[in-house]
Amino acid sequence: MSIKKETSQVIPQLIVIPAIEWESLKHEINSLKVSFGNNANQTLGGWLNENQTQQLLGRKATSLWRLRTNGVIFSKKIGGRNYYSKQSIIDFLECKK
To answer: Residue 75: inside a domain, yes or no?
Structure first.
């Protein structure tokens, strides 16, 4: 007697759109890539990237990870990169005084 295991397969879904709309969408995506690429070293509003936060706090990536996982500072992951809330960093620095 053999037991069959169910395998879960991901079946890709196809979306059909007119070629002109596809070209327009590709143009918008490329514009966003260029825009974000040119501003990669700048801050995003009330957020700092990993390197900026390390320099500001004088800490290494491991320390930031610990602060982040313990909920001491607030962060968001965007595009595989961590961005830290300026306000949570200010609050953290004020608690250290």
So the answer is: yes
16 occurs within a structural domain: no
- Is position 19 within any domain? no
At position 5, the amino acid (one-letter code) is K
* DSSP states of 17-46: --HHHHHHHHHHHHHHHHHHHHTTTS-BTT
Range of the domain at 74: 41-96
Q: Indicate the pTM of the whole model.
A: 0.54
Ramachandran quadrant class, 65 (left: phi over 0; alpha: psi -120 to 50; beta: rest): alpha
pLDDT tens digit sequence for 50-85: 999 999 888 999 999 999 999 999 999 888 899 999
Integer Cα distance of 69 and 72 in angstroms: 8
> Considering the domain boundaries, does residue 8 fall inside one?
no
